[in-house]
């Protein structure tokens, strides 16, 4: 099978860290692949624990096995989904010359936010985020924590001042949600809006009411 080359504007990095919010990540991954983007997926060890706790899914630790599992589930095209281990420093996302210009960390733990805010790059998620910031790309982080401590707020403010979009997992209710999926779709829709990707997940304010 011939190699498929995706231009950088058709690529995105999606990272899952150890915060609660696995359903958001699954729907977002499905929508990104459905939009035709090539997804570079990064999953922390803590994120796999959360996935098991919240979705009863045991994700394999080996990147190749996880790529196969998710590609089959979401019917991804050849090479559309790339999965990397936490220390794959030679992956495209680790370098400004190869990383996608857009990245979403969903869900995003406060530990990950703190590391990014301090410029620490001890794993590939942190390094990929550092690359997007230094290359002046688009970084969206989706924290799920309550309450926020002053330290959390300081770290998020620092990132916001660097151009990072802070989008807490705080779904609205004006669309009159009936199910948990409705709440999940609301947040994923807001993320897709900021990525300038079309969707029909929820009605926009002022339309369909």
Offer a concise description of the structure.
By secondary structure, this protein is of the alpha/beta class.
Kindly list the characteristics that best describe this protein:
209 residues, alpha/beta, EC 2.5.1.129, single chain, 6 strands, 6-stranded parallel β-sheet
Q: Could you characterize the architecture of this molecule?
A:
This is Flavin prenyltransferase UbiX. Belongs to the UbiX/PAD1 family. Helix 1 links the parallel strand 1 and strand 2. The protein is of the alpha/beta class. The protein is 39% helix and 15% strand.
* Strand element count: 6
The string of secondary-structure elements, in order, is EHEHHEEHHEHEH
Main β-sheet, spatial strand arrangement: 3-2-1-4-5-6
What ranges have pLDDT less than 50 throughout 5 or more consecutive residues? none
The fraction of residues in strands falls at 5-15%
Mean pLDDT: 94
Shape: globular
Structural class: alpha/beta
Between the first and last Cα atoms, what is the distance in angstroms? 49 Å
- Helical fraction: 25-40%
Characterize the largest beta sheet: strand count, sense, and whether it forms a barrel. Answer: 6 strands, parallel
| Radius of gyration from the alpha-carbon trace, in angstroms | 16 Å
**What is the number of helices?**
7
Domain Flavoprotein: 11-195
EC number: 2.5.1.129
Organism: Oceanisphaera ostreae
Protein name: Flavin prenyltransferase UbiX
What's the helix and strand layout?
Layout: E1 11-16, H1 22-34, E2 38-43, H2 45-55, H3 63-73, E3 81-84, E4 102-108, H4 110-117, H5 124-134, E5 138-143, H6 150-161, E6 165-166, H7 180-194
Parallel strand pairs: 1-2, 1-4, 2-3, 4-5, 5-6
Helix pairs in contact: 1-7, 4-6
Organism: Oceanisphaera ostreae
Keywords: Flavoprotein, FMN, Prenyltransferase, Transferase
Family: Belongs to the UbiX/PAD1 family.
